[in-house]
Write a structure and sequence with these properties.
alpha/beta, 9-stranded mixed β-sheet, 16 helices, about 20% strand
Length: about 475
Amino acid sequence: MTGYFRNIFTDASLPAPDRGTLPAQRGNKMDGVNLNSELKQRRVAVVGMGRSGIAAASLLAREGADVLIVDDRQKEIPASLQALGQVRVQLGAWREEDLFSAEWVVLSPGVPLKKLPLKKLESLRIPVVGEMEFAARFLTAPLIAITGTNGKSTTTTLVGEILKGWGWKVFVGGNLGTPLSEAVGSPWDFIVVEVSSFQLETIARFRPRIAALLNITPDHLDRYPDLSSYQKAKWRIFENQSGEDHAIVNGDDPLAVPPFLKGASILFSRTQIPQRGVYLNQGEIVSNIWGEAEPIIRLDALKLKGAHNIENVMAAAAMTLLCGCSVECIRQTLTQFRGLPHRMEMVREAQGVKYINDSKGTNVGAVMKSLEGLTAPVILIAGGKDKEGDFTPLRELVQKKVKRLILLGEAQEKMARCFSMHPALERVDSMAQAVARAAASAESGDIVLLSPGCASFDQFRDYQHRGEVFKQAVAGLPS
């Protein structure tokens, strides 16, 4: 790795450093507290035995804590937990009193805060923190955190790939799949995490050196009372930043820009040239982060397609430029990166019809972005478990771009009422039936798009399972 670079961790252009020479993360560790001694023999309750809860319990046990992990579901106890003698597991009906003897409570992101006896815990002065907040207090590498309603998985992965291409040792995880607790104990140069609104509900001192908010559209309204509450949860990603930190925000999305920003603002925009940021100019992504305009890549060189992916690329470019990556390194990664499974994933073309898997499109905003990026006639497969979303913003796009609308899952009746004016709407009982009906009505040049706009838990384990079932059905179609 040679050449000169600029980044926010140094005050000047310097030779590109060897791995591990960046300054430590500032502001995430517990001030004046040695966590090893703080946790030794302390009683800690972990609520939720998903992957995050298991990772937190394992970390606590390694640090010498006396750990109780509880979950209201009956599930198999992983061998990794069984091997840790100081971890006790309580499944099924656990009592609130189980928490009152703890000195800390660590909450998995999938467990709503309202499930806990918060007032009683507060009166007993028992802190409640999320797994991400807890893990971040052990870390010293610079932390990059990315949130947003849509695009955060793609952007997080892309940032990680660019940093790795520049030669850094990078942890990539968080809500993306690998819990932050699993980053503890290794010498990382950067920590890059996808952060959900659920995780941000339980932060206290979580402080990213670079924090990005990609966009906000209505989502998870089955968990939040209104859009404003969801928005405020997302804004918390910037809450603990200082003037030494950087905030990356979408200049085209007013909902994504909070009224407070302590970190230096960097905008990305498809419609304007920001004072400092990354923007789109005549089919080319350009940066003026370091002063003069610097071309990064032309859109036709990107493997990622669609308006939403242009925004993802601009945000990723901004973050990695701030970390010192060269434009050449960023461009090389962007020309090779094809995106993630289940997000506008091209499955196959059969008899002139393209089949696209967008199972990760679990809200209205995601479906809108996906449809906006398509020019061919679309047969849309949608539906699933309703998250109390409003489907009416989709009406105009569906009328304009969707030649046939196929609905499945619990939300199909609600969606059918919303799109009752569509001339070709039908309901089906299964994904296999949806794909069969789509194939039967498709003509050469059409696109069959699975973009549900809903959660998957009515018929599937998760969005990945739903996408795999779709791909299996498509694979069975005649060539």
